[in-house]
Design brief:
There is one protein chain. This protein is an alpha/beta fold. Strands 1, 12, 13, 14, 15, 16, 17, 18 and 19 form a nine-stranded mixed sheet that branches. Strands 2-3-4-5-6-9-10-11 form an eight-stranded parallel barrel, surrounded by five helices. A two-stranded antiparallel ribbon has the order 7-8. Strand 2, helix 3 and strand 3 form a beta-alpha-beta unit. It is globular and about 70 Å long. The mean pLDDT is 93.
């Protein structure tokens, strides 16, 4: 029996009493992935990206481990909710325009002490000030550095379009603008190198593309390491008490951790290891989060139909954004239909061994987005479900 076949047998036994659709997290794999992130971080703390987890119980589980410290959140409303839930160090990784939440933040000393917001534009400071509603608490601020690699005098750009702050002088100027403004304090710098951390460099069947990605990433790492160090020096000249410099992502943990200027690593997808993280030379993890759909039809030889399953991930539309049929091995989508809203036909010889009501196990393309489809995660240890915990959705929280 292959390792994957053994996993399928375990998951089927563990959930035999549960009807699909359902989602699980294999805790043995989750914990092994967490340990690998800590190992690759080389002694620097890992800040957990909540968007890649979206389950309070699992955030608590990973933060109880040595080597993890703090949360990187994705909306201000989520940040305040987590702070009220007892999480004491929450870094909002994206700028917000949530005026109501800013008023709550500026009016509550506990929230103001626990939550750090992201800015890269003076206009964002104006919005925060206009939203205070009388609240006088000092707002903790993190500055985001644009990590994109610019070539040919800026005519070619590689990387996500995020912050407008690219040069050390630009980031230092923003730090001075915050420092001059009452009610704000610069405490950190964040630089997420998505073109390194979030792009696979070993795509099956694409050797030339994979080599090109590796060459690009090597050049991007060299350029960013030098520029990030200059940015930190420039900002520390303005803000000597800078508390943290955050960088990284699941795909670049060990490379970013090697930079002296970086004090902590941001990562989250490496806990669940969705399908988009199969194509990396820098690490290999164990798939920990899966969902099951029930077989509801057998249209013919070599075909079964499962209920639902059309859960595409965000990003540029393409086949790599669809979930992948994972267990049993050997199933594939019908190219004329793909993953459907309410039914999904699957092709392949394993279909002939599946009965009505059997489970087919899938892996989502990205990590935490899976939790927007399910209100609970069944936690599997060995061949048993040992707990069932709510996702954000299960707690009535749909932040984005």
């Amino acid at each position: 029996m292959t390792a994957r076949a053994s996993d399928r047998a375990r998951y089927d036994r563990a959930t035999a009493h549960l009807d699909a659709p359902l989602a699980i997290v294999d805790l043995d794999a989750f914990d092994a992935n967490a340990a690998d992130l800590v190992r690759r971080a080389g002694g620097k703390p890992v800040r957990v990206a909540s968007k890649s987890v979206r389950c309070r119980a699992l955030l608590e589980r990973v933060l109880a481990r040595d080597g993890f410290a703090g949360i990187m959140s994705f909306t201000l409303a989520e940040s305040l909710w987590l702070a009220r839930s007892g999480f004491e160090d929450v870094l909002l990784a994206y700028p917000s325009a949530d005026r109501t939440a800013y008023a709550e933040l500026a009016g509550d000393p506990k929230l103001a002490a626990a939550v750090t917001v992201m800015v890269d534009d003076v206009a964002q400071l104006d919005l925060i000030d206009a939203s205070r509603g009388g609240g006088r608490e000092v707002v903790r601020v993190c500055l985001e550095l644009d990590t994109s690699l610019k070539l040919l005098g800026g005519r070619v750009r590689v990387g996500a379009r995020r912050s407008p702050l690219h040069s050390p002088a630009q980031v230092a100027d923003m730090a001075r603008a915050v420092a001059r403004r009452p009610g704000f304090e610069v405490v950190g710098i964040m630089a997420y190198e998505g073109h390194v951390a979030g792009v696979g460099d070993a795509v099956a069947g694409r050797p030339l593309r994979s080599r090109a990605v590796r060459l690009m990433q090597a050049a991007a790492r060299r350029e960013l390491a030098e520029r990030r160090a200059e940015v930190v020096r420039a900002v520390r000249a303005v803000v000597p008490g800078l508390e943290f410099v955050n960088g990284g992502g699941t795909g670049s943990v060990q490379h970013t951790a090697a930079e002296d200027a970086v004090t902590e690593i941001g990562a989250g997808s490496g806990l669940y290891v969705p399908r988009l993280f199969d194509n990396y030379t820098s690490f290999s993890g164990r798939p920990a989060a899966l969902f099951a759909q029930p077989v509801v039809r057998r249209p013919g030889v070599g075909v079964v139909t499962v209920l639902g399953g059309g859960y595409p991930a965000s990003g540029a539309a393409g086949p790599d954004r669809s979930p992948v049929p994972y267990l049993p091995e050997g199933l594939r989508y019908d190219p004329q239909e793909g993953a459907g809203e309410v039914q999904t036909p699957l092709l392949g010889s394993p279909a002939d061994d599946l009965l009505i009501g059997d489970k087919v196990w899938f892996r989502h393309a990205k990590a935490g987005e899976l939790c927007e489809r399910f209100d609970a995660l069944h936690l599997v240890e060995g061949d048993a479900v040992t707990a069932t915990v709510p996702t954000y959705r299960g707690e009535g929280r749909t932040f984005l």
